Structures are given as C-alpha cells and as structure tokens.
Amino acid sequence: MKTHKKELKETIKKLKTAISAKCLNCVCYQPAEVLRCEIANCPLYSERPVTLLGLYTLAKNLKKSEAKNT
Q: How far apart are CA 62 and CA 70, in angstroms?
C-alpha cells in the first residue's frame, strides 16, 4: 500500500513538472508571466502553477537543455 502511494505521489510530481514546463514554454520561459496568464480557454489553465516556487529553476534547466539540443 505504501509503495502505491509513493508511486502515485511521484506521478503527480512529474505531471505538475510537465504542466509547469509547458506553461513556461508558452510564455517564453518567463516565470512571472505564468502567474499572469489570462488564456482561460487553455486546457492547462486550471492546473497551471499559482506560485513561483520552483519555476525559476525549472525555466533555467529547460533553457539549458534546449540550448544543448540545438
């Protein structure tokens, strides 16, 4: 039972990271703009991050990985 809960928590964390990454990509990796998003018809609008917690680090890491791939 504990293993299932742990896997579920890890899956939720991965989904939140993926949503945050998509939101950052949409606003050209500007974390503050994610909070100002007004695109209510976006399917991720209700799930987007509501705090800057971790967004700056994620944006920095995504920029690095994008630069490495090009």
A: 12
């490495």: which residue's tokens? Answer: 68
CA end-to-end distance (rounded Å), the chain: 43
Other beta carbons within 10 Å of 20: 22
Q: Is 44 exposed, middle or buried (0-12, 13-18, 19+ CB in 10 A)?
A: middle
Query: pTM of the full predicted structure?
Result: 0.84
H helical segments located in the chain: 2-26, 31-35, 55-69
Can you say how many angstroms the Cα of residue 66 is from the centroid of all Cα atoms in its chain?
15
From first to last of its 70 residues, the chain has per-residue pLDDT tens of: 577 899 999 999 999 999 999 999 999 999 999 999 999 999 999 999 999 989 999 999 998 888 888 7
Residue corresponding to tokens 């998003």: 37
